Amino acid sequence: MSIEFTATARRLGIYSAVATAVLLVAYASTLVLGLAMLESPDQPIRDPMFSILEILIIAMMPAMVALMVAVHAWAPRPSKSLSLISVVFMGLLAGLTCSLHFVILTLSRQPIFAAQPWLPLFMSFNWPSVVYALDILGWDVFFAFSMLFAAPVFNGTRLATWVRVTMFASGALALAGLIGVVLGNMQVRNIGIVGYVGVFLVVCVLLATLFCRTLPGVSDANESVGWGRREA
């Protein structure tokens, strides 16, 4: 039995969209402040800003997964296969990101690890490193696919169309960040950050608005009366 857009799904969508937007603003603000405190742009962000960023990323993941589950509930029945794929990719991002950043947060500063000469090749965000490559896989691939598969399910109203357009933009920019990996230039890769921070923040605000305006209902009714009439 497919998931429907119930009152619970509606509340889940509103709360998770708002939570994700708030955490994104907090993350972006902390990132800007951390970068402003550096003496050179080549230096990594230092504590306490670095640890705050790690905690914010981990906290953001459950909200993002819940948001895509709400999107799956909202999606009309003919489009639910696409929204389900989006949920799966967001789950992959959450699992990878939480594991990655929890390991960095808890282990990278332990004396037994910090003393190892190979540590920068595994647990640093200086390219190339294992951690950096996995982080790129999560955000430039899994996140991008989640957005690109979810975008087509939104149609029928002007607001839903804006959600679709911004989701496509967010996913495309995140995917474009892989160009930096091909070129070995992480400055080029920063284009992906615009997609999954800046544009995705707009997506969250639009989704919160859409869910607030949408009455709970089943997908079968949406197919018969048209998507646009779902909004209050």
From TrEMBL:
Species this protein is from: Eiseniibacteriota bacterium
Protein keywords: Membrane, Transmembrane, Transmembrane helix
Keyword match Transmembrane: yes
Annotated transmembrane regions: 12-38, 50-75, 82-107, 127-150, 162-184, 190-212
Protein name per UniProt: Uncharacterized protein
